[in-house]
C-alpha cells in the first residue's frame, strides 16, 4: 500500500497501486468528476481533453494547483500536470481486474525537496479515494497525513543517503 520511489536519470517517479473492487467506470468517475473529486482530493475544474485546464483548489491548505490535461483517454488513462510544470506530472491508469480494477498512479517530480510531502499527501488522498468508492467518504485528517509524512521522510532520507 505504501508508495515507492524510482529514480530515472534526474527524475523521481512516485508510484502507488490499489486493487479496487469497483468497475473501471465507477473508478474513472471518482477520478474525473468534480463532484466526486472534491470528496477525496480537492475542488476541481476539468476540461476533459488534451490541453484542457485541470485546476485543484485544496481547502485544507488553501493551495491552488492550476495545471493542464496531458492525456485524456476514458476510462483508461488520465495524465495531467500538478499545477505548473515545476510540480511534475501525475498519471492515473485503470486496468480491469477480476470484476474490479487495478489503479496505478504515478507522480513524476524533479527533485527530492517535496518528495515526503507528496508521498504522504497522495497516500492520504488515496485512502480517502478508497473510502469514497466504498460508500464511506471521510474528511481530510492532518494527523493521518503527519504520521505518513514522518514515515516517508525517514524512508526518503535513508534512500537519498544511499545514493
Task: Please characterize this protein's 3D structure.
- By secondary structure, this protein is of the alpha+beta class.
- It has a single domain (4-162), classed as 2-Layer Sandwich (Alpha-D-Glucose-1,6-Bisphosphate, Chain A, domain 4).
- Helix content is 34%, strand content 36%.
- It has 4 helices and 8 strands.
- It has helices at 24-32, 34-40, 115-133, 142-162; strands at residues 4-8, 11-20, 43-46, 53-57, 64-73, 77-81, 89-97, 100-109.
- An 8-stranded antiparallel sheet has the order 1-2-8-7-6-5-4-3.
- A hairpin with a 2-residue loop joins β1 (4-8) and β2.
- α1 (24-32) packs across α2 (34-40), α2 packs across α3 (115-133) and α3 packs across α4 (142-162).
- The longest helix is centred in the last third of the chain and has 21 residues, at 142-162.
- The radius of gyration is 15 Å and the shape is globular.
- The two termini are 24 Å apart.
Amino acid at each position: 500500500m505504501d508508495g515507492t520511489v524510482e529514480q530515472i536519470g534526474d527524475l523521481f517517479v512516485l508510484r502507488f497501486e490499489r486493487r479496487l473492487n469497483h468497475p473501471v467506470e465507477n473508478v474513472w468517475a471518482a477520478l474525473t468528476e468534480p463532484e466526486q473529486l472534491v470528496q477525496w482530493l480537492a475542488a476541481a475544474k476539468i476540461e476533459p481533453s488534451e490541453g484542457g485546464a485541470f485546476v485543484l483548489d485544496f481547502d485544507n491548505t488553501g493551495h491552488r494547483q492550476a495545471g493542464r490535461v496531458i492525456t485524456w483517454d476514458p476510462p483508461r488513462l488520465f495524465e495531467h500536470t500538478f499545477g505548473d510544470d515545476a510540480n511534475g506530472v501525475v498519471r492515473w491508469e485503470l486496468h480491469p481486474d477480476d470484476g474490479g480494477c487495478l489503479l496505478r498512479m504515478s507522480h513524476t517530480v524533479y527533485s527530492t525537496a517535496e518528495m515526503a510531502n507528496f508521498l504522504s499527501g497522495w497516500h492520504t488522498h488515496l485512502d480517502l479515494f478508497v473510502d469514497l468508492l466504498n460508500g464511506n467518504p471521510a474528511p481530510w485528517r492532518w494527523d493521518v497525513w503527519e504520521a505518513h509524512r514522518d514515515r516517508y521522510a525517514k524512508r526518503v532520507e535513508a534512500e537519498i543517503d544511499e545514493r
